[in-house]
Amino acid sequence: MVFKVLKQALIGLTFAALFAGHASAQAAGDFLSGSCADDANKPFCESAAKDFKKRFPLAYKGDYQSQRNVAFCLSSGCDGAVIRKPIFACAWRLVIITSGSPDVDQSDTANTDADCGKLSEIDRLTAAAQAKEIIGRLSK
Question: CB neighbours of 78 closer than 8 A, spacing ≥ 6?
């Protein structure tokens, strides 16, 4: 059992090393699906894409609500506007609950449990490493 846990941790750290640093290169456009033109919900998709582009840099500036919105879109896809990225959604949820913001509440804990709970242990380790990278890039 110990070897299995160590193996998973080693694999997770390997993945984390591969993904670490990607936060510095992230831009809102990296996560947009670009498929609103084909979507039956085009107005909703376009509105969600516009909001995501606005909120993404604000999330890196430490804006609590923007961080929540970014995490939600990375988890749900926001009407097809955003590419679902479960590891990044979990990472942002971890950023939120460790932010120390007075706005953090039980819904943030529940969202973290929901988004991170569906990941494998390796993916959760990767998300934790990504969260650390994001935290290091937040505007002080």
Answer: 45, 48, 49, 51, 52, 72
What whole-number distance in Å separates Cα of residue 81 and Cα of residue 42? 9
Whether pTM exceeds 0.70: yes
Q: State the Cα–Cα distance between residues 87 and 74, nearest whole angstrom.
A: 9
Q: How many CA atoms lie within 13 A of 94 on its CB side?
A: 20
What's the domain count of the chain? Answer: 1
> Percentage of the chain surpassing pLDDT 70?
80
**Whether residue 54 has pLDDT greater than 80:** yes
Domain that holds residue 125: 2-137
